[in-house]
Amino acid sequence: MGEAPLLGGRYRLGARIGRGGMADVHRAMDTRLQRVVAAKVFRSGADAAGRERFAEEARILAGLSHPGLVTVHDFSADADELYLIMELVEGHTLADEVQAGPLPPQRVAEIGSRLADVLAHVHDNGVVHRDVKPSNVLISDEGGVYLADFGISRLAAAAGRITGSGQLIGTATYMSPEQVSGGEVGYPADVYALGLVLLESVTGRVEYPGSGAESAVARLVRAPEVPLDLPIGLHRALLVMTASDPAKRPTAAECVDLLAGRSTDVIPRVQATPPHQATHPLPRPRRHLKSWLLTGAGIGALLVVLVALLVTPSAPEQPALPPVSGPAGVERLPEDIATLEELIRR
Fold it and tell me: Which InterPro entries does the UniProt entry name for this protein (predicted)?
């Protein structure tokens, strides 16, 4: 039995190592350069719109360059042969890792920061991924983290929410609220999806499980439940990344610093305690001199009365007190002091 024909007259297909909605991924040998590659081969029977999305993925990836993106070597958009030849990443997906149980928060934050850096580069080049999910995150045997599968990505200026057939674009489990409700889909949608991916990684459970429709609608009913026992930096990052309002989410570039613990600038600040409620209140301003004098006059009069009661014997003569109708306040203070001195001398 002869060998199978070469793909594009150059690539010999091996075992299938992955399967997506439109294509299968095979290990392949580049017979010209004698290197092992990954061949993403479009399945037959798909419609023209699907083929165009596949070709667009190749064009988008070819225009991007980042350590966290799989390198594109070659592609064909012919009707008979539709394929994408990429760098082969030996390893597993984040979905495989999470399936074994929750990941330590420190590892989740590290993976998240690296993925956010990839998204920042993608967004800087005007591209919205629109399908960030655990199975699209590749982790190499050397520890590299890659964001893959740009099959439904779009240039930001042309990003839509549905295909020509009226189907929602993306994976329902990780869609942003604006994707579900038909709003504008932009860069914040990728940040939201990354937040859900990281939340799932640290809890070991899908935040919005169920069928496509059930999962999609659930996020319009309740916000994601971010565990309170997470490290404060990761907890705050996940809260803002999964905010229902796209305008309140940080950018992918801000997420890099947030998840790495280098910044909290996008976290709503706690309002400072007003001065009158502060634990250590500021010194009170000095009262006006007149207020002190008035207070002193009142105290002086009170002392006169007290001393008179204590030192005066039971005799007919009683010390004369200032008349009730006499001068008050500052004007009477000298007279009160003189009376007090006279009583003390007695």
Answer: Kinase-like_dom_sf, Prot_kinase_dom, Protein_kinase_ATP_BS, Ser/Thr_kinase_AS
